[in-house]
Automatic annotation (TrEMBL):
Xref: InterPro entries: Acyl_CoA_acyltransferase, C-N_Hydrolase, C-N_Hydrolase_sf, GNAT_dom, UPF0012_CS
Record-annotated N-acetyltransferase domain positions: 13-211
PANTHER family for this protein: HYDROLASE YHCX, NITRILASE-RELATED
Taxonomic superkingdom: Bacteria
MF GO annotations: acyltransferase activity, transferring groups other than amino-acyl groups; hydrolase activity
Annotated source species: Terribacillus halophilus
Protein name per UniProt: Predicted amidohydrolase
Keywords: Hydrolase
Span of domain CN hydrolase: 227-482
Pfam families xref list: Acetyltransf_1 (PF00583), CN_hydrolase (PF00795)
Family: Belongs to the carbon-nitrogen hydrolase superfamily. NIT1/NIT2 family.
Length: 520
């Protein structure tokens, strides 16, 4: 008898995070698991993957998806105990996911009926518990269906039904399973899922506590989460060397440090000041000479961010890549790591004089003060980019800019303030002032840098944390409170993120690679 090929007997069960290629299979499975209930839309699952990919799991058997679960992170004490599924999930899109939250909230678990009994649900629940432990979350909370309740609703109240299940006098496929996995009932919510007829729209609010949880940092008893920002309104003037440029830059980073800032923000293409000592006068050639300082620029700002313990938005700089010139903004984290954001929309002036090419990647960055985005000057005038950034979790959008007249400046300012209102987000603009009379196409500058908020009672009057006087070399320092921002998104006078009509329109990038920190 020949040796058996054991591979023919193997069943390959894989638990992994959901990817976009799994969406169609999951939608098909959901129709089988929950007949009669409104299924996910593709846009829901795509949003889950974009916003919190670590929290979306599936089980695959020989290449077929047979189970899945979805979740997000919240600060549960910000929600009413009587919340609905729509409240806790932002109608299924989880744009209210809070990376700084305490609780993992499970919003869906399903196992294909043909594969029940294989403990697929237990694998998914264990994956959630491991994630909660890894992320040091306080607990897992779920709103659990009670699908057998309709059989007893004529004789038992929901509370009585739950008590009978807890006493093991009645079996409920969901509630019994959850209790066996260490969840305890906190309360019963009415109208949790209006289309869940089997549960008569009721749900059990249940919690599993992470016994290894350790409260730490700003998340402990948080009533405020202030982030201090120093905005540098940088003077463009003639210099003689890169060393002189470095001394000026370090001076302002030192100022930010003295104020205890979390971020120091420099303006767009302020490194063109280096052109003032270059011999080249033709703009298209001068910009390539300027790009030769890229390594020195990166080394300088990396060193300053670490030495002064400040996250630095290093304005933007012209960089040559593959024989093309790009306008790139760099984020220098105080832990020594570096990120970059290409300018997406290039102005006619940049194309004409310098031959700048547009980038095609939109990013949101994790920092020790939450998620942020950088949108360079003209980019803030296109509302889709800010909306995308906030959908990916950004709480602050930094806007380095460079404008030569008041009209151009006002376009940037008005749009930054509009984005703050539309997306319930903080925006920060940092511009250049002064003159480089000897540099072609960098003759004059106009700026009034500032820090802006949504317009509501919780924030500063007129939605302005602080602003510089126009056209002088100075800084503005201000605190933005991320905790107030989160509360205002849920309970503000108006709630743009919550009230956006996703049933009528959605944002979809075409032929555009979109990155979040998890893509690195």
């Amino acid at each position: 008898m020949s040796e058996l090929d054991l591979s023919q007997f193997e069943k390959k069960v894989v638990l992994r995070n959901i990817t976009e290629s799994d969406i169609d299979q999951i939608l098909d499975m959901q129709k089988v698991c929950f007949p009669g209930m409104d299924p996910w839309k593709k846009s829901h699952l795509k949003s889950h993957i974009d916003i919190f990919p670590e929290g979306q799991f599936c089980v695959e058997l020989d290449g077929k998806i047979i189970g899945s679960c979805s979740s997000l992170i919240v600060n549960f004490n910000e929600y009413d105990d009587r919340h609905t599924w729509d409240d806790i999930t932002d109608e299924g899109y989880i744009t209210n996911h809070n990376p700084e939250g305490f609780n993992l909230y499970g919003i869906e678990v399903m196992v294909h009926p043909e594969y029940q009994g294989m403990k697929i649900g237990k694998r998914l629940y264990e994956a959630r518990k491991e994630l909660a432990a890894e992320m040091n979350l306080k607990s897992i909370i779920i709103g659990g269906r009670i699908p057998n309740y309709h059989k007893y609703s004529h004789e038992l109240t929901p509370r009585q039904y739950v008590e009978e299940v807890e006493a093991q006098n009645i079996y409920d496929p969901v509630l019994t399973f959850q209790m066996m996995n260490g969840f305890r009932v906190m309360r019963i919510n009415r109208d949790y899922l209006p289309d869940d007829k089997q549960s008569a729209t009721f749900a059990t609010l249940m919690e599993w506590n992470n016994i290894e949880y350790h409260a730490k940092s700003k998340r402990h008893f948080k009533t405020a989460y202030p982030v201090r920002v120093t905005v540098i309104q940088y003077m463009m003037k003639q210099i003689e060397s890169f060393e002189e440029f470095a001394r000026q830059v370090e001076y302002y980073v030192d100022v930010a440090y003295d104020f205890g800032s979390d971020f120091a923000v420099f303006p767009e293409i302020f490194t063109t000041q280096l052109m003032s000592f270059l011999e080249e006068k033709v703009p298209s050639k001068a910009v390539r000479k300027l790009s030769e300082f890229t390594e020195q620029y990166i080394e300088l700002f990396t060193d300053l961010a670490v030495r002064y313990n400040v996250n630095i938005v290093g304005g933007s700089h012209f960089v040559e890549e593959d024989d093309h010139i790009y306008n790139i903004a760099y984020l220098f984290r105080r832990d020594g790591t570096i990120e970059k954001q290409y300018k997406i929309h290039v102005t006619p002036n940049e194309k004409k004089w310098w031959g700048i090419q547009p980038g095609d990647t939109v990013k949101v960055f994790d920092t020790d003060c939450g998620r942020i985005a950088i949108q360079i000057c003209y980019d803030i005038e296109f509302p889709e980019l800010a909306r995308h950034a906030v959908d990916q979790g950004a709480n602050i959008i930094f806007v380095p800019f460079c404008t030569d007249d008041r009209q151009g400046y006002l376009r940037v300012r008005y749009c930054a303030q509009a984005r703050a209102v539309e997306n319930q987000v903080y925006t920060v603009i940092a511009g250049t002032v002064g003159n480089l009379t000897q540099v072609e196409n960098m003759d004059i500058q106009y700026a009034q840098s500032g820090i802006f908020t949504p317009s509501d009672f919780e924030f500063a009057r007129d939605g302005i944390v602080g602003e510089c006087p126009p056209n002088i070399e100075t800084v503005v320092v201000g605190d933005v409170d991320l905790e107030i921002l989160q509360r205002q998104r849920k309970t503000g006078t108006v709630r743009h993120l919550h009230d956006r009509r996703k049933d009528l329109f959605e944002l979809r990038f075409k032929n555009l690679e979109s990155e979040t920190p998890e893509d690195h």
